[in-house]
What we know:
Blueprint lengths: L2 H12 L3 H28 L5 H24 L12 H24 L7 H33 L4 E6 L3 H13 L2 E7 L9 E2 L2 E4 L4 H4 L5 E4 L6 H13 L4 E3 L3 H6 L8 E2 L26 E5 L4 H12 L4 E6 L2 H13 L6 E6 L5 H11 L3 E4 L6 H6 L1 H22 L3 E7 L8 H23 L9 E7 L1 E3 L5 H10 L4 E3 L5 E6 H13 L5 E5 L4 E3 H11 L4 E2 L8 E5 L19 E2 L5 E4 L6 H16 L3 H11 L24
Parallel strand pairs: 1-2, 1-5, 2-4, 5-6, 8-9, 8-11, 9-10, 11-12, 12-13, 13-17, 14-16, 15-20, 19-20
Antiparallel strand pairs: 3-4, 6-7, 16-18, 17-22, 21-22
Helix pairs in contact: 2-3, 2-5, 3-4, 4-5, 10-17, 12-14, 14-15, 19-20
Amino acid sequence: MSHSYLIKVVERAVLFSPRCRRLLLIGIDALLLPVAVWLSFWLRLAHPLHPSFQAAGLWLLPAVLLIGLPLYALTGQYKGLTRYVGSRAIYRLAGRNGLLVLLLAGIGLMLRLPMPPRSSWILLWLLLTGFTGAVRFALRDLLLSLRSVSQKQIVRVAIYGGGEAGAQLAAALRLAGNHQIVTFLDDAPSLWRRTINGIPIQPPQVLSEIQGQLDQVLLAIPSLPRSERRRIVAELQHQAIPVLQIPSVDDLTSGRARIDALRPVAIEDLLGRDPVPPVPELLGPGLHDAVVCVTGAGGSIGSELCRQILQLSPKTLILLESSEPSLYAVEQELSQQLPASVTLVPVLGSAADPALVQRLFANHGVQTVFHAAAYKHVPLVEANPLAGLANNVGSTRVVCQAATAVGVSELVLISTDKAVRPTNVMGASKRLAELVVQASALELSQSTKGAGQPCTRLAMVRFGNVLGSSGSVVPLFRRQIAAGGPITLTHPEIIRYFMTIPEAAQLVLQASTLAKGGDVFLLDMGEPVRIKDLAEQMVRLSGLSLRDARNPIGDIEIVCTGLRPGEKLYEELLIEAESEATPHPLIYRAQERSLPPHELWPQLDALEEAIVVQDVNVALELLTELVPEWQRDGSHAKPASSENSSAAAQ
């Protein structure tokens, strides 16, 4: 009989109805029970037909069937799914068989029937448990192997991680039946030459030897530090083997994802640094049970601020957003996780509307404001400078005026490193927004001089690129890769600092607690990243190859378009001041040059008038006077291309 024919026969048996499969198991047990009784005599007395067996066996053989099968049925022996049999099933089998042996012994004593030697009862219990358990494990393995055989294509994988997560992933993949686990890989020498379910654990260096035997490597270390993840992925990419990973620890523990919910390694998982735990004294003391307003609540930074503020249990969280789709999306998301004690107030409107903002702050008794509303796409603001100035500068002035008039306790402006020696209108507008906050803080301190601390503390937090934000290069590169390329950037040596959105938001919340008035807080952005290296890594993570002189048949090409006038190879966080440390290791404070209110306000009035009458030249001349570090070069006069704009401009 051929192997393929046998497989077909067994596959047909697997297709039996549940009732037929249960009858099959009952039939197998009906054969095993008498065999176990006979073996218990033979092994104990060293003779297959010893006189003791001939005497006691006459009643034990029928009794074990008459008592055993109903006992198995009543205690749930035939209710379990065979393909999911595990160690608990063995414990339950041992208990049932122990009860069966006790019942047989009790009947024999009560009826004064011939009894086997005492040790035969122990042998009988062990044999019953071993036989019935072995059959079920064998059937389980047969079912799983048949499922694997029936799959059209089996994926050969190596699991990187010989710990608990790796073992759980292996068990889940085994049940799924569409993966063949070739080996486990682990950096710990103590695990080498050991096995998990018979599969060896080997050092990662063996990949070069077994590369042809693998289709994928599965990264199964959910708590792996980011730096270690970078190192491992870089090593695996040299082997040209696709890498997938299991969900994060948070997703696994919260139940949002299963251990076998494999996904590609995202560039966000590799960039940035390992998370720094928050300083408890800085996170949330002013937000708990407070009325908090976030402007630009639907944006990447604004929405993450809302998520984290919600975890600190404010009394009311106000979402101010001018985009209806963005406001709807963030309001729906937050409503799903809203604590019963928190009130969520979605407000559709612009932070540059004085009447709306003042009424909103006054009616709700707002205590803390995070001003994240801004236009931040460099090419779009360059092509539409008046809209950028109206939103970035105008809204900041409106929010500051309303906060100080109503008596808001704290206002924090979300700024950017592009405000430092800006080379474009967006950066210059954010620097001017910073000057507005500084001047408002100075004016407030002068008006309350001698009366103690000003009732409103105004501050700003300045940081660089955040991964995954709408202005980040990462979504742009991802779209370009999906479209088949090319990836466009302006210069191969462009470098930028990157931080994850959750980390940036958490640091902003902690910096707000440190504010005294007019502060400029800087966030430590970690190690710089060369944008060309980032693009190349994203191509490799997508399972594609680079097209260049060395590989002309590659998938994705990187095209350098050249630096635009005044564009920087790197960004800065300081203008001229030296930064000083704060109680948080990643937050620094700087006191920088500012304009006094009596000089700034008249020029801002003139700027607002130029915006109203749509006079671009006057508006940009005023911007040059207010932010002398920015030099007008005429680049605003023509629209910048959107999708082909440089990576550095983001």
